[in-house]
Every structure is written in structure tokens, then in C-alpha cells.
């Protein structure tokens, strides 16, 4: 079989403490990783198809249009590593042009990872697929028997935008370590742009993003044994121009008490819970961030409207 699975599943991990700390702090927040329970992942898949949500279709068009050039930049026979691989859908656009010696899929949700890896292995029987269930933000170990070859990190989707700039810089530094002195990285980043397009992309007319945002409260109720009533919160997403980030919040529509599975919090009407930041970078901003992490931008591909960019980074 061309698919081998490794379970480096993080043991324990204290979601309860982390959630309580965020919900009981002065500026209440929930880490965006909690948006992606099973229902949240399905809602996000629906978001990627919404007319207002341009990032996914724009990035896929860039990968499709420039596959050969990206393949040339990464070099034949490279070992492609995708943190947060999810459905492994986007990498399919590169495989024929790139012909990597192996593809390492890293994700924290085991069942989805195994299923996606098996499907990929069936679709590309020539490709060696290694699926590793791990939290790449904490630690993961490349399997000892990876084939030799330049290591290239593939990190699409502007997922790097979920990280605070300092954490994004640290993660780019991690990538620098994974790739060694002769490797590279292919990173998708949503661009800073006029507010109208950005606002619409996070406030779609059908209300799917609102449902995605409110769904995090169901996930938190499940983890904490809390009694959030999602229908008592309003989806609020706006572009914070100074910080160059979309912020998503859930705003209490009226005063309410919430039992967090023990501790009780009091919310006044208008109090907000911050559920996600999505940072947007101009090419100049992102190049500066990469430089701080010891990486240079060797190539950049964009769409005609300059909505989104895919960068090829190297030491
Ligand atoms: C998957 C984190 C890139 O920030 O645009 C979509 C998640 N949030 N709509 C993004 C998201 C609201 C998405 N990322």
C-alpha cells in the first residue's frame, strides 16, 4: 500500500482550562481552532463555495494556473509536507506537475486525516503518502524512513492568517527548521484589500458564516458541559483596518448568565466573545514577516485582481 498512517495524537491537552481562561478574561475569547468540530468543518466547507467568499476559489485558480512553475520551484522528487492537511484537496492541483517523492499529511483530526489520505493514495497510486495525526503547533516528528529529497512545506488557505503576527513569525521559523538549508515552502496568503470585499466575505447573505461562528458555542457546551444559548448571540465580523485583520465576534443580544460547567459568567447586552482573527497581508507586509523568520520570498503568484497570493519561500 502507498499510504502509511502514524498516530502521534497529542495526549490529553487541556481544552477545558484553555477555554475557561479565555471566556473568563476581560476581553472574552475562544481560540479559532474550536470552530472546527464536525459541524463546524461542514459549515466551513459550505463557506468555501459561497459567492462572497473569494479566497478558496481564487487560490485554487492560482494553483491551477501556475502548477508547472510551482512544480519547478519545488523541484522534482521533493518531500511535500502539509500541516493542517484536512481534505488534502488543494495539493491534488500540484501533484502531477510536482511529482513529489512523498506527501506527508499532518492533521489533528484522525478519522478525517486517515480517510483523506486513503482517498489520495487511491487517486495517485504512484505517490507515497504518509499521514501523521499530530498537533503541528506543539510537536511532531517526521517518520524516520522518509525518502531523501528536498523538503517543501505546503501551507495554503491563508490559515497562517489565523495566527497573531508574532505566532505567524514563529511558525514560519518552524517551517524554516523543517525544510533544512535546501528546502522551501509554498504558502497561500489572503491580501490586504478594500473593506467592501473583505466585509462581504465574512458576512455572507445566506448567513452561513454566522452559523459557523455561532456553532463554536455548541462545541464549547460539549467540551465544558456549559449552557450557552447560541441563538442569544449575534454574529459580528468587521475589518479592523489598523490591525489589517478581519475580527469575528459573538455579541450577547441581551443580558444573560452562562454556566461554564461550574463557573458562571454574567454577560450584559452588547458584551462580545472574540472567536477569530483573520490577518490580511500586502506582499510587502508578508515579505517583511518572512525575513524576520529567516526566509526570503523567492517567487509570488497572484490572480489578475491581486486578491490572493501564493508565495514560494526559501532560506
Ligand atoms: C480557514 C482560517 C483561512 O480566515 O478566512 C472563513 C476561516 N472564517 N470564514 C479564514 C473563515 C470565516 C478561514 N481560514
UniProtKB/TrEMBL annotation:
GO terms for biological process: methylation. It is an enzyme of class 2 (transferase). Pfam families: Methyltransf_33. Transmembrane segments: none annotated. Its EC number is 2.1.1.44. One of its GO terms (molecular function) is L-histidine N(alpha)-methyltransferase activity. Residues 16-313 form the Histidine-specific methyltransferase SAM-dependent domain. Keywords: Methyltransferase, Transferase. Gene3D superfamilies: Vaccinia Virus protein VP39. The keyword Thylakoid does not apply. PANTHER family: ERGOTHIONEINE BIOSYNTHESIS PROTEIN 1. This is L-histidine N(Alpha)-methyltransferase. It comes from Parahaliea mediterranea.
